[in-house]
Amino acid sequence: MSLGIGGIGGYGSTGPILNPNESDVKAAGRRSSPAECETCKNRKYQDGSDENVSFKSAQHVSPEAAGAAVRAHEGEHVANAYSEAAMNNGKVLNASVRIKTAVCPECGRTYVAGGTTYTQIKYVNEENPYQKSLKSQDRAKYTGMNFDAVA
């Protein structure tokens, strides 16, 4: 599924309009304007993880929709971490998402370049003898530490 818009919509002052609804003003030191930028028109996003999430094959996303698409995609990774923890007697200790931005070298437009999700899951193995020993030590240590006074 392609979320991007594109196509040749006519001609601007210096070339074909590849990205409709974008500025046709060329910034100083740039090869093209955002409306004529071939790089932005051909930019594709692809997931490199081994999880079952979107963007497994390279897809074009328009620069306007890239932020929402990347945030939604990284949210899939977070949801997968919570599902994995729930299925394997674990607890998600940390889940954070970092969205990366970049500047197009051709037209100078700032765009969302991708994202990274970091998750930390703690798994508890109740059958591990060390875990059982730790629980019994904690039980002895914490018994009687909390006190409810009734007046």
Summary keywords:
two-stranded antiparallel sheet, alpha+beta, 3 helices, disordered N terminus, 151 residues
Quick take:
This protein is an alpha+beta fold and 151 residues long. The protein is built from three helices and four strands, in the order αββαββα.
Tell me about this structure.
By secondary structure, the protein is of the alpha+beta class. It has a domain at 63-142. 29% of the residues lie in helices and 21% in strands. The chain has three helices and four strands, in the order αββαββα. It has helices spanning 38-42, 63-87, 129-142, and strands at 44-45, 59-60, 90-103, 110-123. Strands 1-2 form a two-stranded antiparallel sheet. A two-stranded antiparallel ribbon has the order 3-4. The longest helix is centred in the middle third of the chain and has 25 residues, at 63-87. The model is unreliable at 1-14 (pLDDT under 50).
Number of strands: 4
Give the integer mean of the pLDDT values: 77
Distance between the termini: 67 Å
Main β-sheet, spatial strand arrangement: 1-2
Shape: elongated
The secondary-structure element order is HEEHEEH
For the largest beta-sheet, the strand count, sense and barrel status come to: 2 strands, antiparallel
Low-pLDDT windows of residues: 1-14
Task: Please give the share of residues in helix.
Answer: 25-40%
Count of helical regions: 3
Structural class: alpha+beta
Evaluate the radius of gyration: 25 Å
Strand content: 15-25%
